[in-house]
Amino acid sequence: MQVRGDELVPLDDILADQIALTSGGKRSVRPNDYDAFLVYGYGKAQLKGGGAARFSSAFADRVTIERARKRLLSERLLIRLRKITDKPVFICPCPLPTQQDGKSAPRLKDYHDEMDLLQRVVFSPLSATLVPQPAETILDGSATRPEYGEGSVRLRVPGEGLAAHDSGERLHMNKEYGRVWLTHFLPLLTTIKDKYLLSAR
Asked: Rounded CA gap, 63 and 59, in Å?
């Protein structure tokens, strides 16, 4: 997306159609129409293939940040958004994959340490708040508990019914995960109510 005047405009019709699908038909983003912004699913920043104990803390931090900046669409979007608004922005990472065959992929850094690092180095300078995955949904610090992935469905398309994800899907979560996540996220909005929310004016 690119800044055009006081709004963010998609670069092609495919993205415009996707925005319209979940926005009630709007095909661009005008910050003045909203109280706050949530960027959900910024990407996977963790490095697979070895546990944290194999690397120094400084090396793990450097690689995490470098890989994150290459893969985080949210940082690029946030930089553009900050050109036209100072309203609150919350960043929510993709859920950790559910375990496969009772095993979790090794991580370069502990999940919560990684979130703290990205908040401090990537998002705080842009005045954005990183919202980690709820602790009760995480298993062994590296995967989402399998019960939160059972029965997940695809995004509903107008005119079509709900369709379940394929068997073995590990990256998308179900409505119970959504309920838990919202229970954690919604109280954050009360911290900005008096200053930002249109309903409080």
From this structure: 6
**Which H or E element spans position 7?**
strand 7-9
Classified as helix, coil or strand, 110 is: coil
Q: Rounded to the nearest 10 degrees, how much is the dihedral formed by the CA atoms of 191, 112, 58, 44?
A: -90
Rama region for 144: left / alpha / beta (φ>0; ψ in -120 to 50; rest): beta
Please report where in the chains the tokens 């590296």 appear, as a residue: 142
Phi first, then psi, for residue 156 (nearest 5°) are -70, 130
Q: Which residue has the higher pLDDT, 95 or 159?
A: 95
- The 3-state DSSP composition of the chain as helix, strand, coil percent (nearest 5) reads 45, 15, 45
Bridge partners of 4?
A: 7
End-to-end CA distance of the chain: 30
- Tell me the pLDDT tens digit for each residue of 131-171: 999 999 998 888 899 999 888 887 766 666 667 777 777 78
Q: Report the chain's mean pLDDT, rounded to a whole number.
A: 80
Q: Is the dihedral of CA 41, 47, 51, 53 positive or negative?
A: negative
Mean pLDDT is lowest, of 15-19, 156-160, 180-184, for: 156-160
Side-chain-facing half-sphere of 70: CA atoms under 13 Å: 9
